[in-house]
Specification:
The chain is of the alpha+beta class. The chain has 2 helices and 6 strands. Helix content is 33%, strand content 29%. The relative contact order is 0.18.
């Protein structure tokens, strides 16, 4: 499903804002120490132990890219959610990657 440029930017930036809000809530609740740094359409999560997860918007392709230790993933909007080529939902993939890299169960529920 193709989005207008405005819709893509709105959905992509809202997704990044929700991820940042979840990380901030975990910091406040002392769940896990993840630092986030956002520059435009790029969000970098610095995980415990020094690893990183990078989430990057790709406006020309209307995709969201996720880079983690487990690999790189590309997500497109399917009309209801961000999914990769294998049908994996973004929030589920991000939760799995963050859990692996943080060494504890983490669930991004507001993606």
């Amino acid at each position: 499903m193709s989005l207008s440029d405005a819709d893509y930017h709105a959905k992509a930036h809202a997704l990044l804002a929700r991820i940042e809000a979840q990380v901030d809530a975990w910091l406040e609740e002392d769940v896990v120490d993840i630092d986030s740094h956002r520059t435009g359409g790029l969000l970098e999560l610095s995980m415990p132990g020094g690893s990183k997860i990078v989430i990057n918007t790709q406006p020309p392709l209307q995709e969201i890219w996720l880079a983690a230790r487990s690999g790189g993933y590309h997500f497109k909007w399917d009309g209801a959610q961000w999914v990769d080529r294998e049908g994996q939902e973004f929030c589920a993939r991000l939760s799995r990657s963050a859990s692996e890299q943080a060494g504890q169960a983490l669930k991004f529920s507001a993606c």
